[in-house]
Specification:
mainly beta, SH3 type barrels, 5-stranded antiparallel beta sheet, 7% helix, 39% strand, elongated
Length: 175
């Protein structure tokens, strides 16, 4: 009988069945989400622009004026804060504004920051150079180890020291 009551309650008030127990009290209703807890992902973190037409605003809504428009798909940005569907982002030049989450991607990219060309090597031993990347070039990031990341910029692939990349943290390690 309790199970039947739980199922009826599920359909009537849209409470997940797993949360309905005969001896439990009703689940608390969330008042409002914390501004920095929209996704639960760590902050700050890096993302990239999903298109070559990204509007950045002065605040987290369409009601705020546009500060500028990015015209570079894949540009790495750092997400500093979340509010609802909006992300406060910082670009490689230090500019800060708000962009809607649908305009951002979790795809890892990085921008070369070295004034001198950054050399990409065939392996982490740094013995055979495969390409030189000038300052400002945006590369895709495939994986990162302790000191280096494997990047690609068609048709080149290679390992670059993290210190030349803006778009990954020194502590980032992933495959």
């Amino acid at each position: 009988m309790t199970r039947l009551f739980c199922l009826l309650l599920t359909f009537m008030v849209l409470v997940p069945a797993g949360n309905c127990h005969a001896e439990s009290s009703p689940a608390p209703v969330a008042e409002s989400a914390e501004p920095d807890q929209s996704t639960g992902l760590p902050l700050p973190r890096f993302a990239s622009l999903k298109s070559d037409n990204v509007y950045v605003r002065t605040g987290p809504s369409m009601d705020y004026p546009i500060k500028w428009i990015y015209k570079k798909e894949g540009l790495p940005v750092e997400i500093l804060q979340e509010f609802d569907a909006w992300r406060k982002i910082k670009d490689p030049d230090g500019n800060i504004g708000w962009a809607h989450k649908i305009l951002l991607s979790g795809k890892k990219t990085a921008r070369i920051t070295s004034d001198e060309p950054a050399i990409a090597y065939d392996d982490t031993e740094m013995e055979r150079p495969v390409a030189k990347f000038e300052k400002g070039v945006i590369v895709g990031v495939d994986q990162c180890q302790k000191l280096m990341c494997r990047v690609h910029f068609a048709p080149y692939k290679g390992w670059i020291e993290k210190k030349y990349l803006w778009g990954v943290y020194g502590s980032d390690i992933f495959n």
